Amino acid sequence: xxxxxxxxxxxxxxxxxxxxxxxxxxxxxxxxxxxxxxxxxxxxxxxxxxxxxxxxxxxxxxxxxxxxxxxxxxxxxxxxxxxxxxxxxxxxxxxxxxxxxxxxxxxxxxxxxxxxxxxxxxxxxxxxxxxxxxxxxxxxxxxxxxxxxxxxxxxxxxxxxxxxxxxxxxxxxxxxxxxxxxxxxxxxxxxxxxxxxxxxxxxxxxxxxxxxxxxxxxxxxxxxxxxxxxxxxxxxxxxxxxxxxxxxxxxxxxxxxxxxxxxxxxxxxxxxxxxxxxxxxxxxxxxxxxxxxxxxxxxxxxxxxxxxxxxxxxxxxxxxxxxxxxxxxxxxxxxxxxxxxxxxxxxxxxxxxxxxxxxxxxxxxxxxxxxxxxxxxxxxxx
Amino acid sequence: xxxxxxxxxxxxxxxxxxxxxxxxxxxxxxxxxxxxxxxxxxxxxxxxxxxxxxxxxxxxxxxxxxxxxxxxxxxxxxxxxxxxxxxxxxxxxxxxxxxxxxxxxxxxxxxxxxxxxxxxxxxxxxxxxxxxxxxxxxxxxxxxxxxxxxxxxxxxxxxxxxxxxxxxxxxxxxxxxxxxxxxxxxxxxxxxxxxxxxxxxxxxxxxxxxxxxxxxxxxxxxxxxxxxxxxxxxxxxxxxxxxxxxxxxxxxxxxxxxxxxxxxxx
Lengths: 382, 266
Description:
The structure holds 2 protein chains of 2 kinds. Chain A has helices spanning about 15-25, 85, 125-140, 150-155, 175, 205-215, 225-240, 250-255, 260-270, 275-280, 325-345, 355, 365-380, and strands spanning about 5-10, 25-35, 35-40, 55-60, 60-65, 90-100, 105-110, 120-125, 160, 190-195, 200-205, 220, 285-290, 295-305, 315, 320. Chain A is of the alpha+beta class.
């Protein structure tokens, strides 16, 4: 097998991939339908996948719809992102006990017997999500500041990417340069072909990906099949539901600090934090120390937090960002501008989750455009 | 563990309420023995008639102030309590009985009672904080027993209680629940309601009822606009804010704005 060589896996044989991953000790997590949405949960067989389903998305709107075919990955991203597994919403950092006898009230951290760490295989990681994971890697697993729990989980995770052959109404990965095709960071990448026989074009992106691929019943993809897969990605790229003009955006946002448009957004913003919690790159957490009633047992928990809460910016005397305007501006300017100063890239991958799952339907691409147009109008004003 | 020589005294006080919040303390079951071990329960009408005299380290106050007698009684309790914590929607916002605040109470007593002249009641049902200084408010209708145990644990050990003022949405998302308003179009009070219940109703595909009252910096007006878009009428939006926390200021003001619009419509 040559590096980058493309193979054909018949859809009827996709179960071989799940079996091969399970055989190697991976817990396979993939898309499945629950409570009216396509979410990421453990999948055991191909029947757990959302065969024949798609989603219809818009600002503050998400609905499942039936497709007229048997596509297994014929939808776009839903409310969950992979950070749910790599960086769980609630995570106990340690427990401590207080020995009354001897140490007189001093707490000691209990050395925990390491439980069996899950080894995940993520099935159906979209190109934007690969970029989101790469962003989390930079934030949480850089050599200088490493989150050991994240790093351990991340290094053992096997990534099966799926190229997007259709773009959703809230998608704008093409603007962010993060999709719709997966360029790197995967172990295997699939492109689903529905014309003719239902099959996948498969390519390995790592040696462990190549090992899994070698265990599957495949044949070499024809030039026509490779071309078909490629043209479908071009089609998706050309049909993005949304666009974000990133040209000069960082400077534009910094210049807009005092713009009245932030107040207009705040009239709609609920400061409910949904946008940050569905965002695949928002990584902010809070720390909670708890004791039981006896006071002899303490635990420290890390939980997902959000810059939309007042406690997030609470310093001595009060919250730094007490207004909703200040909190929305903080989130958007950090995501699209300050992130570049911090991490040399945008914090947005164009997945559109913050648009779809905002109850008020606030659209980050529309707000960026409004600020740009307002500034342009201001520049030309007499 | 060896018990401290003297356990702090905990008292539970009842004002105008259904007793549901007191029952949440009894409902602690697994933790109840630990609570009884950590504190001396000095007054707890739902559990025992025995009353131990004050002063009390911690008073949990249930219910709202609705009578002249209660308006006096709460001051005596405050004076004999080192910490005073209000529990539940009645004590923190006036409760469901605060619906009287939007009507003429004399007209209502005349309808309900054969001899309204015997009824000594105030025109308004008000939260405890309108009468005395309150050290902490625990929300909910009823309160959540885990939050109650967390609060008692924190106060006993002199640490900050982990009781956030953010939205129910935070709890929904942390537990991986799917937003019922976005994915199903079900009207939900979650985005303006304080967390604490564990996102109970949305977890069962029911919209949040707002039992825990307004969250910090709520944008009720924006939520009402969303509800209108989902086809909810003015009268039903008004009713959504006029429940257990009707007298909490952000909900009261939002309801009043729909009352005006409703009257203008007719």
